[in-house]
Amino acid sequence: MFINAPTPSAEMPEFRAEIRDFCRQEMTPVFRRKLELGQHITKDEHDAWLKALGRRGWLAGNWPKEHGGLGWSPEQTSVFREEMQRVNAPWLIPFGVLMVGPVIYTFGSDAQKKKFLPDIISNSLWWCQGYSEPGAGSDLAGLKTRAERDGDHYIVNGQKTWTTLAHWADWIFCLVRTDPDARKQAGISFLLIDMKTPGISVRPIRTIDKHHHLNEVFFDNVRVPLENLVGEENKGWNYAKFLLANERAAFGEIARFTLALAQLRELLGQVFQSGKPLLQDDSYRKRLAEHEIELTGLRAIVDDVNATVRAGGNPPLIGAAALKIRASELQQAISQTAADAMSHAGLTFDPGALMPGWTAEPDAPELANGLMYEHLYGRAATIFGGASEIQRNIIAKGALGL
Amino acid sequence: MTGLTPEDRQMLHDSLTSYFQDNYTLQQRQTHLETDNQSGYSRKDWANYAELGWLSLTTPESLGGLGGGMTETGILCAAAGRHLILEPIVSTLVLAVGALAELGNPSQKALLEQIAAGDRVATLSHFETRGGFDRGFVETVAVKAGQGYKLTGEKSFVIGVHAADHLIVSARLGDEEGPVALFLLDGDAAGVTRKGAIALDERPGAALIFDGAPAALLGGVETDRMPQLNYLLDKAILATCAEAVGAMAAVSELTTQYLKTRQQFGKNLSDFQVLQHRLVDMHLHSDECRMMVGFALNAADTKQENWSRLCAQTKVKVARSARFVGGQGIQLHGGMGMTEELEIGHYYKRLSVCEAAFGDAAWHLAGLANTKGSDHA
């Protein structure tokens, strides 16, 4: 116990100053305001921002130098992410740079590295993740999308779902079944598929926040060159597991929670009960304190996971599961407090005020719509990337041997 | 109010259920929301409710209504919650009708007939933005002007207010120290600004701003109406709780059904004990609330002592259960629970609105903690 003391988070004042300068230059006041209000941005706006990061090499700053990254230490990566979240920067879409990129440079062929890595680093290609299927959610290994060999191609048939931003993506990385007779996990392969290939169609799924983030993706006799197979055929599950740990570890975005708490505090200053702002209400002050305690706890999990990364490489699956459980719970707890605060003012939510093209200034409390959106869409945090129930199964098996 | 016989209650329940099943599918509901921009609910259905007698359910028999009690109101509201009905039932049939029946002078009471016929809609706004859930926090002031009054102040967002023909609002008589009375205004009166907004569950409504708006005093006598208002708001709490009970029962049933058919890891999700226990907890919450709300509705009808305190207790219980049942409904449906095309997310939002309406669990818990049994108001 307590052998590997977590290192305190790094200061790196010069690096931080460089990032802050960059943000000042690249973010117009109008854009900054949009982000502050939690409004949805357009693909063009998002793309311009990610490309600007790409030009600095920062998008893939944590990649090893040999693959085109800057070879950042975990501390440097944390500082970068902190600074991004501090200014409410657009979501660093993980599908390319955090997910498929590392899979390609770890398990892919030289040709794949050459073909795909530079475009991921520069954000020239948008990726999405083809994992879940209608019949394979928590039980991901039950996936049925088939890929059958036909000469120098695979023929892919099936359906993916919950595919975030498939409607913006140029490429999709997919788990497909290549051996229907093998044990569930054993017959799965990892394929890279161009979204423009004939036979692919995308259907939007609207969610309870009234927005379009998610999609169904259908594959109807889609021809994929054999060279787009990553690693070995039927070994895809190993690569998927490697990537899932990365996905879950990404929940530990401490600065994002710090910002959410700051926004909650601002909201509590603008909503009134009996003539006084809720910020003066003892019960709400206690709830803020509770959230801060949980945030400190989360920081400790992140530091512990990072210490393991430093010592041994990949994020440990059990630490990542704990992190995902606690981070998603904290996210929902904070936005629940925001919703409870808004209850005092009539619990309204105008999804239209978050859409691109909406230019009016919001009524007070001005952050309300963005926070209510978080409250609704945030219900998914305990579902996607492995539901909380599945994370608990991982810990039951891995940590307790049950 | 005497209320109906059990046979009549059963008939009411059956007619509500069969009407809503036929005319209020999720798709029809979305059509009402999206196409009827004026009201955000279905005026056609509202007219049918009049035909079916539901709009006179809460009006006393002496005033030409059916004379239903709180139990009958509860039956109506539970069906409204179960079928995610958009029309402003609590605000119109419980609060506005209650205020008119209780306090109106003969000409004001005449409005009840038009409401019962579906020709006119009235809503009641009491709470204020700076006051939150505080019933006693009224800064809107009514000053005498000729035969009537002029109102200045504002009222918080209430569902349905944007499309109401008549507004009933509370204000202090004379100045900010004056007693609280209720006033009747035309929806489109000069000096009234309706600030449209949308509730979390997509039902439109409005906050109100008054700038010297002409208003008539309800009942015509200058006196403190806070006791009557408290009584009406307690009734509105119970009606909202009944609505939540209808929604929770639906979530509990839908989720159980879904887990019985959804297969993962080679078996039904309902075969996993951890999920069975979750379903049991959802059912317990939902059913316990059904019983507690039924108990409180009956206590209201039989004019039991301490009824107001019982309302607050019920609201705490129902609000907490609504949060659990609504949240777990989405969680156990997984991604499907997040989609707009499934009912489950709509129930979640409706339950959140029920939780918040007329004071949330924390507010009423604090109220109960700071008052003794009989003097709670």
Q: Would you write up a description of this structure?
A:
The complex is a heterodimer of chains A (402) and B (377). In chain A, strand 6 (200-206) and strand 7 form a beta hairpin. Chain A is 46% helix and 14% strand. Chain A has 12 helices and 10 strands. By secondary structure, chain A is α+β, with helices and mostly antiparallel strands. In chain A, the strands form 3 sheets. In chain A, strands 1-4-5-8 form a 4-stranded mixed sheet. A 4-stranded antiparallel sheet of chain A has the order 2-3-7-6, with no helix packed on it. The mean pLDDT of chain B is 94. With 377 residues, chain B is an alpha+beta fold. In chain B, helix 1 runs parallel beside helix 4. In chain B, strand 8 and strand 9 form a beta hairpin. Chain B has a 5-stranded mixed β-barrel with strand order 2-3-7-5-4. A two-stranded antiparallel ribbon of chain B has the order 8-9. Chain B starts with 5 loop residues before the first helix and ends in an 8-residue tail after the last helix.
Shape of chain A: globular
Catalogue the unreliable spans of chain B.
none
Sheet-strand content of chain B, in percent, reads 15-25%
Helix fraction of chain A by DSSP (H/I, runs of at least 4): 40-55%
Low-confidence parts of chain A: none
Summarize the structure.
By secondary structure, chain A is an alpha+beta fold. Helix content of chain A is 46%, strand content 14%.
Topology (elements, then pairings):
The complex is a heterodimer of chains A (402) and B (377).
Chain A lengths: L12 H14 L2 H8 L6 H14 L17 H13 L7 H14 L2 H12 L5 E4 L15 E5 L2 E8 L10 E7 L10 E7 L5 E7 L5 E14 L3 E2 L5 H14 L4 H17 L1 E2 L2 E2 L4 H31 L4 H27 L24 H10 L10 H11 L4
Parallel strand pairs in A: 1-4
Antiparallel strand pairs in A: 2-3, 3-7, 4-5, 5-8, 6-7, 9-10
Chain B lengths: L5 H18 L2 H10 L7 H9 L18 H13 L6 H15 L2 H4 L1 H6 L5 E4 L15 E5 L2 E12 L6 E8 L6 E7 L5 E7 L5 E14 L8 H36 L1 E2 L2 E2 L4 H29 L5 H27 L9 H14 L4 H9 L8
Parallel strand pairs in B: 1-4, 2-4
Antiparallel strand pairs in B: 2-3, 3-7, 4-5, 5-7, 6-7, 8-9
